[in-house]
Amino acid sequence: MALNLLDTPSDRIDEINLGYQTGPEGLLDILSAFRNLGIHHVAFNLLVDGRKAIADLEIIAREVLPRLNQAAEPQASR
Predict the structure, then answer these.
(1) Which domain of life is it from (predicted)?
(2) Which residues, 6+ apart, have CB-to-CB distance to 67 below 8 Å?
(3) Apex CA 32: angle with CA 45 and CA 29, to 5°?
(4) In the prediction, which pLDDT does 76 show?
(5) Cβ-based neighbour number of residue 16 at 10 Å
(6) How are beta strands 2-5 and 19-22 bridged, if at all?
(7) How far apart are CA 35 and CA 70, in angstroms?
(8) According to the model, what pLDDT value does residue 44 have?
(9) If you average pLDDT over every residue of the chain, what do you get?
(10) What is the largest CA-CA distance in the chain?
(11) How many other CB atoms are found less than 10 A from the CB of residue 7?
(12) How many other C-beta atoms are found inside a 10 Å radius of the C-beta of residue 36?
């Protein structure tokens, strides 16, 4: 999935070729929707240079993935 992660925590989601442009909030919404559809693995094609890619991965790891896991915990206990 192509991803242009914005520097703001925007929840606005814009479709781009083969993916999305959004902030961490929007990415969380996208990944939650994917999970609800039964999609559990996603590969990101980050549309940036090296330093920005590392920063984007840090934002995803710090701000998105922990919250995605928290959102899934109640479903896992069913």
Answers:
(1) Bacteria
(2) 28
(3) 75
(4) 52
(5) 12
(6) parallel
(7) 13
(8) 94
(9) 89
(10) 42
(11) 11
(12) 10
